[in-house]
C-alpha cells in the first residue's frame, strides 16, 4: 500500500474502533430518553467542531444546492440519528452483540451497492474481504439474547451504517471531512430535538446522572468529533468500499470493551472472530502482499466513482 492508502486505512480503523466502544457506552444509556441523548451528543460535538471547520467554511456551505442539503439532512437522519436510535432501541431487548453482528455485515452491502450505483461490477477482492469481515463479526459477537424487536432495530442499524458511508460520498469532496462532520452534527442535533418532541413530548430531555454524563461526553468528544473526522478522512483516501471494510472492527471493539462494564466476555470465539475480521480487512483493502500481484484496485476508477456520485 502507498502512503495515502496506509493513512486512510489507519484513520478508518481508528474511527471504527471508537464506534465499537460506543456500543458499550450505549448500554449505559438505556434509561435515558433516546432522542434527548442524541441531541446532547451532536449539539456538543457541533460546538467542538465549529472552530476546526476550516477557512471559508460558511462560504462553501452557501454554495451547496438544495439537492446536497437534502442529502446532508438524509445522511444525518439515517446514518446518525436513525443509526444510534436503532442501536439504543435494539439494546432495550437484545444484548449488544445482536446489533453489532448486523452492523458487521455493512461491508458486504456497501461492496455491492457502491459499484452498482456507479454502473460497474463489484470488485471481487473487496467483496471477498467483506464476507470474511461479516463472518468474523458474527463469530466475535455470537448470537445473543434478543427478540423480534431487537432484530428489527438491528436491521435498521445496518441500514444506518450503510447510509453513513454511501450518502456521504457526493458531499465529501466539496466539503472535506471536517466541514462535513460539523454540518451533519448540527443538522443531527436539530433532527434529534424534533424527534424527541414527537416521541417523548415534554420528557424528551432531562439532566443526565453521572454515569450517563460520562457516556454522553465520550460519545460527543471522542466517538463523534474524533471518530467522524477520522472516518471521512479515511474514506476520502481509500473510498467508501474499502473504508467500510473496517466497520468489521466495530463488533471487535464492542466485544473487547463489554467486559469493562460487565455486559459481556472475551474468549476463544472472540479471538477467532477478530482474526477473521483482520484477515478480511487485509484482503479487501489490499494490505496483503499478494493483493498487489493479482492486480491493483484501479485508484482512478475509484476516484471516477466518487466524481460520478457527486453529480447525484
Shape: globular
Uncertain stretches: 290-312
Helix content: over 70%
Total strands: the figure is 0
State the separation between the terminal residues, measured CA to CA: 30 Å
Report the order of strands and helices: HHHHHHHHHHHHHH
Average pLDDT over all residues: 81
Please state the CA-atom Rg, rounded to the nearest Å.
Answer: 18 Å
Number of helical regions:
14
Strand content: under 5%
Structural class determined from secondary elements: mainly alpha
The profile of the biggest β sheet is: none
Membrane topology: Multi-pass membrane protein
Protein name: DMT family transporter
Family: Belongs to the EamA transporter family.
Subcellular location: Cell membrane
Tell me what the structure shows.
It is a single chain. The protein is an all-alpha fold and 312 residues long. It has 14 helices and no strands. The longest helix is centred in the C-terminal third of the chain and has 36 residues, at 210-245.
Amino acid at each position: 500500500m502507498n502512503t495515502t492508502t496506509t493513512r486512510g486505512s489507519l484513520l478508518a480503523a481508528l474511527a471504527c474502533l471508537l464506534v465499537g466502544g460506543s456500543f458499550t457506552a450505549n448500554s449505559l444509556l438505556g434509561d435515558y430518553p433516546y432522542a434527548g441523548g442524541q441531541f446532547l451528543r451532536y449539539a456538543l460535538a457541533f460546538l467542538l467542531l465549529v472552530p476546526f471547520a476550516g477557512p471559508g467554511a460558511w462560504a462553501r456551505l452557501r454554495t451547496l444546492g438544495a439537492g446536497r442539503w437534502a442529502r446532508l439532512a438524509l445522511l444525518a437522519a439515517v446514518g446518525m440519528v436513525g443509526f444510534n436510535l436503532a442501536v439504543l432501541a435494539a439494546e432495550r431487548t437484545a444484548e449488544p452483540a445482536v446489533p453489532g453482528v448486523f452492523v458487521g455485515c455493512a461491508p458486504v452491502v456497501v461492496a455491492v451497492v457502491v459499484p452498482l450505483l456507479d454502473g460497474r461490477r463489484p470488485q471481487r477482492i473487496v467483496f471477498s474481504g467483506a464476507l470474511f469481515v461479516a463472518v468474523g463479526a458474527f463469530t466475535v459477537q455470537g448470537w445473543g439474547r434478543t427478540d423480534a424487536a431487537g432484530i428489527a432495530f438491528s436491521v435498521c442499524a445496518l441500514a444506518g451504517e450503510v447510509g453513513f458511508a454511501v450518502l456521504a460520498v457526493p458531499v465529501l469532496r466539496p466539503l472535506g471531512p471536517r466541514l462535513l462532520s460539523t454540518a451533519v452534527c448540527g443538522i443531527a442535533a436539530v433532527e434529534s430535538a424534533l424527534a424527541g418532541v414527537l416521541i417523548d413530548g415534554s420528557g424528551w430531555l432531562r439532566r443526565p446522572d453521572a454515569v450517563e454524563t460520562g457516556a454522553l461526553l465520550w460519545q460527543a468528544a471522542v466517538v463523534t468529533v474524533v471518530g467522524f473526522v477520522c472516518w471521512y478522512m479515511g474514506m476520502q483516501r481509500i473510498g467508501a468500499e474499502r473504508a467500510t471494510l473496517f466497520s468489521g472492527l466495530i463488533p471487535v471493539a464492542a466485544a473487547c470493551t463489554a467486559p469493562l462494564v460487565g455486559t459481556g466476555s472475551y474468549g476463544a470465539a472472540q479471538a477467532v472472530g477478530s482474526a477473521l475480521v483482520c484477515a478480511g480487512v487485509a484482503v479487501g483493502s489490499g494490505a496483503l502482499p499478494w493483493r498487489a500481484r493479482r492486480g491493483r484496485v484501479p485508484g482512478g476508477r475509484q476516484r471516477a466513482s466518487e466524481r460520478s456520485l457527486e453529480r447525484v
